[in-house]
Amino acid sequence: MTLSDPQAPAGKLSRPAIEIDNLNKWFGSYHALRDVSLTVGEQEIMVVCGPSGSGKSTLIRCLNHLEEYQEGRICVFGQELARDQKSDRFIHQTMGMVFQNFNLFPHLTVLQNCTLGLTWLRKKTENEARDIAMGLLERVGIEHLADRFPGQLSGGQQQRVAISRSLAMDPKIMLFDEPTSALDPEMVKEVLDVMVKLAETGMTMVCVTHEMQFARQVADRVVFMQDGEIVEVGPPEQVLLHPQWDRTREFLDHIL
Amino acid sequence: MSEQDLKHFVPTPPRLPARNEQNLRHRIQKQCFNNIGNSLLTISVLVLIYYVAKSFLDWAVFNAVWDAATRRECLDISPDGACWAGVIDWFNGLIYGRYPDEEQWRVNSGVVMALLWLLPLMSQRIAYRNSILISWITLYPFLGAYMFLGGTFGQDVGIIHMVFTSLAAGYFILLYLNWVLCAAGQSSLPEMVTPLTSKLFRRGQHMTGFLLVWGFLSILCGVVLAQMHLEPVPVDHWGGLFLTLIIASFAITMSIPVGILLALGRRSKLPVIHWLSMMLIELVRAVPLITVLFMAVTLLPIFLPSGAEPDKLSQVLFAVCLFAGAYMAENIRGGLQAIPDGQYEAAQTLGLGYWLTMGLIILPQAMRLMIPNIMTSFISMLKDTTLVSIIGLFDIMLMARNISNDKNWIGLHTEPLALISILFFVMCYGMSQYSLNLEKRLKAHRS
Ligand SMILES: Nc1ncnc2c1ncn2[C@@H]1O[C@H](COP(=O)(O)OP(=O)(O)OP(=O)(O)O)[C@@H](O)[C@H]1O
Ligand SMILES: [Mg+2]
Predict the structure, then answer these.
(1) Cys staple from A25: which of A33, A94, B59, B168, with CB 3.0 to 4.6 Å?
(2) Which compartments does it reside in (chain B) (predicted)?
(3) Which domain holds residue B166?
(4) A203, A17 in Cβ contact below 8 A?
(5) B230: pLDDT confidence band, cut at 50, 70 and 90?
(6) Into how many domains does chain B fold?
(7) Whose CA is nearest to atom 3 of ligand 1?
(8) B340 to chain A: which residues are within 8 Å by CB?
(9) ipTM of this complex
């Protein structure tokens, strides 16, 4: 497998984690995703970028069954997703997701946010769940805030809680939808640091982000999207430094 | 620029804000007498308050008669004062209806038990607070019904009622034993038997420990209760404030689960459930409570198989529960709409299914948002229950009207109604204050 083949997974392992095959999605009559095909390898870090409205969120939400799609197929570890069925146990056990605006549960403490899934879905006892959650909170550096409520934390801290909450369910794949876009510049770094550390553990990650520094540092491949289509896929040096399409160049000039 | 060239930033030390020292007199002057118009307004309001308060107190306290045998006597002693003697004479009737005098202790202890059941909720340290509430809703009614209805185990108390009454009594005792142990810093009873159960069962040791202790206490209670004999008091002897409270608390507690189910049903994507819930809600909301009550009393027996005609109280409870549930459903739906989609999505990506998402994430937030509205509904339910006197239940309103029909107290209308107003004011104001308090407590940690 060579890097010159842009559609092939460039992960450290060659087994594909996610295979997207000719995906088409419409919002009413609006064609939001057009023949999107992409394969994400196991342990690969994939960064998705593109201008606003290009369908990045839509794509990542289709992977996670938050949106229905009309044509094509998505396979996760070889298992095909049902096209319309909204909640798929396997998918939610395999994938965690981090949202742009955190979506923490405001009525639960930080710790309870993280232990909720463990106690109710994984049938862990209170103490086991607590230990797991505290370990994760420690990893993201906010174990001292475990008893606070989300409303009492800064944006960066909230996003780190959200990451711990997802990790608590022990996913194989993590999806990030612009995790730092709602944050002040000073907080962006603390969240990115956590993501870099996570990438180093060998997690498969699909990140929608405009943090090109992050992309250059950890991404195995970068995807550039425009109008619901994938324009370019390739290793970061190639897409970010020597883009082959004028549209990519234009976009990069804008955000860099 | 090198490090040396930069100026070193030193923050200005913080200081306290200037104290705004104004005494009460100053404030009153500034707020109530700051110009001629306001001064006049303040004075006239004060005069009005004085006039109203004085005439009320004259009637209710200073010129009132507390001790007399008949209304004639009252009028002879003081023609323009309240005749509280009649209300005092009928006090037992107002509170208990026609419940026999010598059995009224059962009503008192039943009500006290209901309150005691909830008391541990005040303690922050007690575990499983939700289970206390759930047990109160599901178990207490059996114990209460046994206390109020009376009867003997095995004779006029049915087998199901016997079992649940014993379970309720057992739970009640377990609750208090646990609380005492918890206050004394000991581990709870179920935890004490855990070493024992862990030898027998591999999984769910805590649960089995709890069930074991509960079961044992329940059997004990059942055996004790089986020895007792409580004089049966049929439902049509219940009345007064006691009956009002039974109907109101039933309406209030049932309105939440019924309301939640109807609200979820109305938002459901399954057309049958959606339309059924919507029709029920709209139908009940569009019709006055009196009509619903009459319908329950006249129509319900027609639909039920003949011979299985329930007593009037059950029919009324059914109607009130439906009515309260429909209103509550709309309150809760309002709360549900205020929850952002992100919460559903976050719950879904964690893998929580529909019921867990609703029960753990959405409803707790929605209910918190709706506390003021829910409490308003509770208060109006409490007041609405006085309507049941119209279909002939001897609630506090009907008892009050009976006073004026008593040959000794003919025409005594105002005083019983005044007493009822005061009673209801105290209860409703208490509920409203409690809801404010609850709101403040829940908001405290969510800035
Ligand atoms: N629920 C929806 N209904 C209708 N159209 C939608 C919906 N969600 C997204 N769209 C449209 O689909 C297109 C892609 O949206 P998407 O949110 O995926 O963009 P994006 O690349 O994530 O943009 P951004 O960088 O602003 O987040 C947009 O033109 C948007 O208007
Ligand atoms: Mg987006």
Answers:
(1) A33
(2) Cell inner membrane; Cell membrane
(3) 100-232
(4) no
(5) confident
(6) 3
(7) A27
(8) 103
(9) 0.91
